[in-house]
Amino acid sequence: MSPEEEAQMLAELKAISNKASGSRFDNLEKKIVKTTVQTEGPNTQNTNTVNFLQGNPEDPALNQYWYSQASVDALTFECERLIKSRGPNYKVAFLSTPSIYFALSDESRAQCWVMDYDKKWESDRGFVFYDFNAPADFGAKTEELLKSFDLVVIDPPFITREVWEKYTESAHALLKEKPAYNSESGQVIGTTVAENAPFMEELLGCKAQKFRPSIPNLVYQYNSYANFDGAEFLGQTNPEIDP
């Protein structure tokens, strides 16, 4: 694919996404009810998720669309489960997934970093500016971060293979081990459309999971992917999508 064809495809995908913006996110906010009690389970409201969604409107200019509250909670609980089960040396990089990073408990977030293009979170301890066009460049923290993570969580702003290849480069640069199925420190969780399943397995060893996240302002449906067995919450269907 030529650069001109790739640019045209990305522009068309962005235009499709932008058609769904606006009123549907307003409806999502009306459904959010604050809670001061957080119990364990993927379907329990997480106060951090609520605060993130209410405090960070989507930015269509960045092709920035959030998972629903329930989907953020489910993905967050999966990450929390892994962090707590593997201990304090288990580190997670969140690539273009700030909603999950900020929904984590403070204790878990201390073992995590969030890599994102949007600098609105740059005051956070774990924020690193990230441009997928420079997949192994993490600024002044590059040397500190390379080959230091056990899990990367990825949700690119675009669904094309070319973009996923760049995120794959980032995963290879950040993970302690080469991402492969059931590797101990080369774990990947990602979300993208079902049509991308073949190259998700080819590039990252990921297989589609039962859980399909809801993204209210996107017109196409995503699947979740992981390259390891035993993904507890990703192994369950999402009642928002699959009653």
UniProtKB/TrEMBL annotation:
<dbReference type="GO" id="GO:0016279">
    <property type="term" value="F:protein-lysine N-methyltransferase activity"/>
</dbReference>
<dbReference type="GO" id="GO:0003676">
    <property type="term" value="F:nucleic acid binding"/>
</dbReference>
<dbReference type="InterPro" id="IPR019369">
    <property type="entry name" value="Efm5/EEF1AKMT1"/>
</dbReference>
<dbReference type="InterPro" id="IPR041370">
    <property type="entry name" value="Mlase_EEF1AKMT1/ZCCHC4"/>
</dbReference>
<protein>
    <submittedName>
        <fullName>Uncharacterized protein</fullName>
    </submittedName>
</protein>
<dbReference type="Pfam" id="PF10237">
    <property type="entry name" value="N6-adenineMlase"/>
</dbReference>
<dbReference type="InterPro" id="IPR002052">
    <property type="entry name" value="DNA_methylase_N6_adenine_CS"/>
</dbReference>
<keyword id="KW-0808">Transferase</keyword>
<keyword id="KW-0489">Methyltransferase</keyword>
<dbReference type="GO" id="GO:0032259">
    <property type="term" value="P:methylation"/>
</dbReference>
<keyword id="KW-0963">Cytoplasm</keyword>
<dbReference type="GO" id="GO:0005737">
    <property type="term" value="C:cytoplasm"/>
</dbReference>
